Amino acid sequence: MEKVSSPSSSSSSSSRRSAYLEALTQEIKKKLTRAVVSPAQTRNLLQDLFADIALEVDERAKDVILSKEEDVISSVEADVDGPLCFFDVLADYYVKVSERGKDILDLMVQLWSQSFASHIFSLLFHKWLFEVELENQEILLRYSSALVQGATNVFWIDIQTNTRRFQSLFRYLLEEVALEQMRLKKIPIQAQRELYLLLSRFIFFYNSVDKLDSFLRNFPEFPNAFLIGGPGDFLVIELTDQLQKLKVEPVLLHYLSQMKILQGMELRMTTSTRLKACLYSFTSPGGPMYPTRAVRHAAWDALDSLFPVGRYPRHLISLFFRLLYPWYWPSSCWNFVVLASTTLLYSIVRLIFSRRVNPRQS
């Protein structure tokens, strides 16, 4: 027989959660106040605060925060969006009880130009910004710009560490803001454009290519669109710029593996040439990109998939230029021997097993 929780138990659980979140809020206010009154320690204090709110919620805290009666953040959502962190919980709290975040906002405005201030703002108030009504357009633009800047910074932290700690922030900005016109139109058009360009750079990293069609359909209008092209052109330009900045090999391989989704997209000739040149820069060893062998092969696969016309001439030209650099010959010959030997061995094994499985029938 299923056990039903009593109203008193539900009220007690809610009170515990509220008290816990209020205690976290007071700790945040204390650190921000110290950062304001101690300029010499401001950077370290903000960095520590950012690290604290980006921590994953431990099991003991989850028992308090994730009550069954109140749907704050379900465990299912936490599994989809990555680890449940303190900023996830606090962001929801400052939407439900907006007055609790007012003092924190006032302190953050005083620290606006400091490092990690935009990081903290984007984590704690990314939901609040789209749920409250702000009549002052200047303040709204300032908050929106801080959100985009802070989100950019924390997404780059994920890229540098090859983690998805801030995936919930990205998914909210993509699915609940960019694809929801009611929320999107709450921020100025300039901030909307910056947000879309930001999401374009990280949509591959956070495995959201399934939302790409909807994302492009909702792309805002840009004043220079007649020079650059449509939404697809803006997306590809941002992606090519992003690729050239990536230095973490697993992340770069991840991006290159997802480039095939661009196949069939209508692009202007200049954008198509830009994409082709970007991918081609990863196909040869040496500067300026110095790609590893795995990256070179992934770049060739993406290039051949997106631009099948001229595939063989490209490989022939690449081989010719490789011959101009004798110091690459030993490694190229060794890799060729290893690949040929492995292929031959697999062929022999398959042949042997096929003969054993299929005995003579004649």
What does this structure look like?
By secondary structure, the protein is an all-alpha fold. The chain contains 20 helices and no strands. Helix 1 runs antiparallel to helix 2, helix 2 runs parallel beside helix 7 and helix 7 packs across helix 9.
Topology:
Layout (H helix, E strand, L loop, with lengths): L6 H31 L4 H12 L5 H7 L9 H6 L5 H11 L5 H9 L6 H9 L2 H4 L5 H25 L5 H12 L2 H4 L4 H14 L9 H6 L7 H4 L2 H15 L3 H10 L10 H12 L12 H14 L4 H13 L5 H29 L5
Helix pairs in contact: 1-2, 1-6, 2-7, 7-9, 9-12, 10-12, 12-15, 15-17, 16-18
Strand content: under 5%
Distance between the termini: 67 Å
Summing up helix and strand content along with how strands pair, one would put the structural category as mainly alpha
Report helical residue fraction: 55-70%
Q: Return the average pLDDT rounded to an integer.
A: 85
Uncertain segments are 1-5, 69-76
Total helical segments: 20
Compressed to H and E, one letter per element, the order equals HHHHHHHHHHHHHHHHHHHH
Strands, count: 0
Biggest β-sheet description: none
In short:
The protein is mostly helical and 362 residues long. It has helices at 7-37, 42-53, 59-65, 75-80, 86-96, 102-110, 117-125, 128-131, 137-161, 167-178, 181-184, 189-202, 212-217, 225-228, 231-245, 249-258, 269-280, 293-306, 311-323, 329-357. The termini are far apart.
